[in-house]
Amino acid sequence: MKIILDSPINKYYVQTLGMIFFPGEHFGEDEELREGEPVLSLRTVEEEGGVRAFATVSIDDKSESAEYFAEYTAERTSERTLKLSIGGAVLAAAGALLGYRPAWGMMIGVRPSKVASELLDAGNSKTKVKRILNSDYLVIPKKAALATNVALAERNIVGAPSKKDCSVYISIPFCPTRCTYCSFVSYTSKRLLSLIPEYLQKLKGDIADNFALIKRLGLNVKTVYIGGGTPTILDGAQLRDLLGFICTQTDVSALEEFTLEAGRPDTITKEKFDIAKEFGVTRVSVNPQSLCDDVLCGVGRSHTVKEFYEAYDIAKASGIRTVNVDLIAGLPKDNFREFSHTVDEIIRLDPENITVHTFCVKRSSELLRQNSKIYSLRGGDVGKCVDYSQIKTEQAGYIPYYMYRQKNTVGNYENVGFSKPSYEGLYNIYMMEEIHSIFAAGAGAVGKLVDNTGNCCNKREIERLFHQKYPYEYLKEDKNEAFAEAAIRFYTERGML
Asked: 10 Å Cβ neighbour count for 294?
């Protein structure tokens, strides 16, 4: 997609708006226009009382233009006003050209509830927040209500965060097979799986360094999350060794939450969940994604629906406090009939958490290499599937407590976590909403240093610390000393010690 810009706005913002209507597009700087390549021309003019944007969207010989005026108000910054004017013009022009209105309007970020939270923090009522999302951001009413409800749930759960709080993430980036839609750093070949013993040895050293650093900084660990990949790819002895080691580094009984992701039912055994329970794990994920064998086979999942039911029974019988189940709406070969059956069945099983993702096409996934046309603007019946999951979970007593969005999701829809009251996945909120620092260990893991003191213009200042992406790189290089120096500097400079 070609962007022609005459405005002080960041070009990336305009590109992300373009991707709402043209998912999967690339943004090159080539002068020559590719056949069928969309073009977005944008100009803004500051006028008395606000900003007016002019947008034209073209594909081959078809073109539509629109203008949109956003008024300056005391409640929003000049930059926000500029973005609103541009978003309104782009949505009007592209919408007219393609005959499509995005459910989330011009909201493009990972955290759609963030704007709702800011509006609530400014003293607006729930009703007014929904109205602003609808009128200013062009979000349809049911999505405005969802964002507002999630923001309210997060506020109630988080309360007043302390600058002394933190969480720990531990990465096990190995899987029994790789799903065709996946782009995570997860490894499946025998050669790479043979690295697990050496990987665990180094990982334990990094975990120890992280907890030593946390102690040095005087921080309080709220949650520990073991993710992947598929952590339960570890055998019983390896899992016992890892969990037992974590218990030597921190008092897991004092944690708000201790999560072990067990996403693949074909890796779950009674022995492993008994070990998890023994060492204080309080939350596990058992993720079928779908309860249709044809859909599972089509996306490379190596388990069957029958194996999911068996794994779920093991999880519930283990006595672990919270069981989460992940689903994905919009998977290839899935449809509303199959997905609604999946939702009904999962609700019947009565897990404490249900997370409903929208299928996201990752650039490095096998599925995209197989089918470059898989991106979908309208998403077929995915919107109907997403709506059904939200209606049925609410009727069953679940509340939406966290939400995020990704680029190139089918139909531009959202991912939502639903929970029974007091069973929310706390790490998910702390991480996604950047409530406090996350100290990470393992290949592909990303730590976040968060200034939540409000000293920086009432905004959270973030510094990210990236571990090596691949396990074999992770095994060769030690970044812990540099990470420790960065963390001590971050906390010292902001007076957070």
From this structure: 10
